[in-house]
Amino acid sequence: MNKQKITYCGSCGKPMKRQEDFGSEQDGVLSGKFCALCYQNGTWTDPDISFNEFYEKSYQGFLNSDMKRIEKFFLKRMYTKKFVAKLERWSK
Predict the structure, then answer these.
(1) Is the distance from CB of 71 to CB of 78 less than 8 angstroms?
(2) Angle (deg, nearest 10), helices 69-78 and 51-63
(3) pTM to 2 decimals?
(4) How many domains does the chain divide into?
(5) What is the mean pLDDT of residues 82-90?
(6) Residue 65 domain flag
(7) How far apart are CA 39 and CA 30, in angstroms?
(8) Cβ 37 vs Cβ 57: under 8 Å
(9) pLDDT in tens, 24-81
(10) Whole domain around residue 31: which residue ranges?
(11) Which range, of 4-8, 14-18, 87-91, averages the lowest pLDDT?
(12) Is residue 81 part of a domain?
């Protein structure tokens, strides 16, 4: 049984499974660290956002997404400020 390795965005924690999920570097190469919602063309999509603003925006984005109800149930328990603060973008 082959399990696909899932990469998680180092900014928002989103799982990146498909090529279009990955952000891009300035030269067009896919980023191995950040998703397309957070990082495009080698820069943050919202570079001046504070951690608290980012957390609220991304949390609401997940809740308003087309995720299944059970996924949202688990997300509410996992997606905490403590979790996001440990991601690469915010832990510096």
Answers:
(1) no
(2) 160
(3) 0.84
(4) 1
(5) 95
(6) yes
(7) 10
(8) no
(9) 999 999 999 999 999 999 999 999 999 999 999 998 888 888 888 888 888 888 889 9
(10) 8-85
(11) 4-8
(12) yes
- Assess if residue 2 is contained within a domain: no
Residue 1 lies in a domain: no
From the number of C-beta atoms within 10 Å of its C-beta (0-12, 13-18, 19+), residue 87 rates as middle
Residue 19 banded pLDDT, cuts 50, 70, 90 = very high
pLDDT at 64: 85
Q: What's the per-residue H, E or C state across the chain? A: CCCCCCEECCCCCCEECCHHHEEECCCCCEEEEEECCCEECCEECCCCCCHHHHHHHHHHHHHCCCCCHHHHHHHHHHCCHHHHHCCCCCCC
Residue 86 has which token pair? Answer: 């440990």
d(CA 31, CA 25): 6
Q: Find out whether 92 and 83 touch, Cβ atoms under 8 Å.
A: no
